[in-house]
């Protein structure tokens, strides 16, 4: 099987009446295709956790992971449609995603809910960071519509990261805000 150079397809730019310069559209399309690859990869990693999670929190995490995957599928479609609206060529196959995604491979040796939550939290954090960088880039390039798309996705990813991190954080906080996991609650003194 020969290796395909997906970048050659990412450089295609069709005429459009969208009033952004061709070099801007080209740069944005390249960035969007990178995000498309990472989004596709992340969705499959979330589904991997969804299918294989075990433990006491199975049902809750199974549902949460499915909700995240569904949202990612919607974002994948929006990124691909923005690429083509700008006159670009969306490179959205699983093989392209595997070759181009910056996310690390998902660990296949985990089963427990907290392990899946931690692995997905790491990946959502990296993905969220890349979205914020893309927000700045789209802004610098003067493409406010793409900027707005990235802002929308970033908000959702940050919320989902919060949901995941809530499963990992201690339920008690010290006065200084640092977690104090493992310390039993002290009885409340009454006056």
Describe the overall structure:
The protein has 191 residues and is mainly alpha-helical. It has one domain: Up-down Bundle (Ferritin). It has six helices and no strands. Helix 2 runs antiparallel to helix 5 (113-141) and helix 5 packs antiparallel against helix 6. The longest helix is centred in the first third of the chain and has 31 residues, at 22-52. The chain is elongated.
List the topology elements.
Elements: H1 6-10, H2 22-52, H3 58-85, H4 94-100, H5 113-141, H6 144-166
Helix pairs in contact: 2-3, 2-4, 2-5, 3-6, 5-6
| Structural class assignment | mainly alpha
The CATH superfamily turns out to be Ferritin, core subunit, four-helix bundle
Along the chain, the helix and strand elements come as HHHHHH
Terminal Cα span? 77 Å
- What about the largest sheet? none
Number of strand segments: 0
Shape call = elongated
**Multimeric state:** single chain
CATH class: Mainly Alpha
CATH topology, which one? Ferritin
The percentage helix is 55-70%
Q: Strand percentage, roughly?
A: under 5%
Radius of gyration from the CA trace?
A: 20 Å
How many domains?
A: 1
Please tell me the overall pLDDT. Answer: 90
The CATH architecture comes to: Up-down Bundle
Low-confidence stretches: 180-191
- Enumerate how many helices there are, as a single number: 6
């Amino acid at each position: 099987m020969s290796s395909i150079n997906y970048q050659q397809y990412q450089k295609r730019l069709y005429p459009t009446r969208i009033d952004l310069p061709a070099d801007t559209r080209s740069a944005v399309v390249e960035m969007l295709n990178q995000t498309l690859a990472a989004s596709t990869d992340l969705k499959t990693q979330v589904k991997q956790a969804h299918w294989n999670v075990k433990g006491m929190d199975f049902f809750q995490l199974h549902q949460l992971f499915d909700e995240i995957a569904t949202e990612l599928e919607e974002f994948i479609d929006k990124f691909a449609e923005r690429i083509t609206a700008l006159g670009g060529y969306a490179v959205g196959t699983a093989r392209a995603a595997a070759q181009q995604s910056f996310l690390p491979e998902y660990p296949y040796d985990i089963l427990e809910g907290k392990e899946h939550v931690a692995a997905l939290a790491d990946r959502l954090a990296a993905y969220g960071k890349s979205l914020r960088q893309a927000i700045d880039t789209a802004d610098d390039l003067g493409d406010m519509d793409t900027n707005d798309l990235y802002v929308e996705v970033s908000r959702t990813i940050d919320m989902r990261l919060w949901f995941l991190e809530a499963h990992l954080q201690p339920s008690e906080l010290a006065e200084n805000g640092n977690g104090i996991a493992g310390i039993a609650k002290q009885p409340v003194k009454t006056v």
